[in-house]
Amino acid sequence: MQSPTHTATNLDTPLAELSHEMARLVDRFVPEDGLHLTAIPGLKLARATSPSLPIQTVYDPCLCIIAQGRKEIRLGDELYVYDPLNYLVASVVLPVTGRVIEASPEAPYLSLALEIDPALISSLLTEMPPIPAPDAASQRALFLDRLDPRLLDAVIRLLRLLETPRDIAMLAPLALREIFYRMLLSPQGHRLHEVVVADGQSQRISRAIEWLRKNFDQPLRIEELAREVNLSPSTLHHRFKAVTAFSPLQYQKQLRLQEARRLMLCDNLEAAAASYRVGYESPSQFSREYSRLFGAPPQRDIARLRQAAQSQVAS
């Protein structure tokens, strides 16, 4: 069966001028390739001068906007491709694979990622009229939406505050408030609404995700997790997969393998030690599942990553 693909098409629109302005700002603040923190809490900027290999990572809830270039994100068997006229949102914590697919030294990939603050979303919802849900709402927590000029204008005003750091504490909260307000008004705004509704099913799935993040190295018993979030085991399984594209067990496996990779790469742990640390009892099972996710056994994969990092530094 062919994997679903969600594609954002690059067309000539009035957004072009705003996108150029955003690209100018990101290019100014991140002269080197990589993902960079900024003085604005929760805001990261990225630059790449060439297409990248697929990178497995875990997205926290965030808004992602591209100023220049294109990127693809894979969630399970689904592929999301987006560009400067469309933005990507992860409304819960999701293990994904990302790849920059359009970038060059002359026209580098330039983007930003902004953390989504559930408390701010909740605050806005108390002051806004009710947000109607569409007749056939998708439950997936990763989605694309068309970029509205008013949303991008608010994002650019947030970026400009990096030019005057003394203004960030006072004015960034105002810009963030407008950004999330515009997102809630968008055609997909109900998806953000759903994950902050107290005791709603989407909120319960968010709680299940948080439990798994804190306990990913522990044996998973679906009945216990279902009781933890006040859902039946069958409802938990169905809703969890609808939101994340993974079953709870598959989701836990993703978290375990990515943490093991980090431990080997950053803390120099051997594969067997890393596998035990993240909850595996069988090193051979760990190696098989690691190879399926990352495309190579642990030792070869880590050597490849280190070689790629050294090549990037040398260049």
Structure description:
- The chain is α+β, with helices and mostly antiparallel strands and 315 residues long.
- It folds into 2 domains: 5-117 and 141-189, Jelly Rolls; 250-314, Arc Repressor Mutant, subunit A.
- Helix content is 47%, strand content 20%.
- The chain contains 12 helices and 11 strands.
- Strands 2-3-10-5-8-11 form a 6-stranded antiparallel sheet. It has a 5-stranded mixed sheet with strand order 1-7-6-9-4.
Relevant terms:
single chain; 315 residues; alpha+beta; Jelly Rolls; Arc Repressor Mutant, subunit A; 2 domains; six-stranded antiparallel sheet
Compact summary:
This protein has 315 residues and is of the alpha+beta class.
Structural class: alpha+beta
- Our estimate of the beta-strand percent is 15-25%
**What is the CATH architecture term of the largest domain?**
Sandwich
**Mean pLDDT, rounded to whole units?**
90
The CATH class of the largest domain, by name, is Mainly Beta
The helix fraction, in percent, is: 40-55%
Tally of separate helices: 12
In CATH, the topology of the largest domain is named Jelly Rolls
Give the SSE string.
Answer: EHEEEEEEEEEHEHHHHHHHHHH
CA-atom Rg in angstroms: 20 Å
Largest sheet, strands/sense/barrel: 6 strands, antiparallel
Number of domains in the coordinates? 2
Identify the strand order in the major beta sheet.
2-3-10-5-8-11
User: What is the tally of beta strands?
Assistant: 11
What is the straight-line distance between the termini? 41 Å
Shape: globular
CATH superfamily of the largest domain: Jelly Rolls
Low-pLDDT stretches are: none
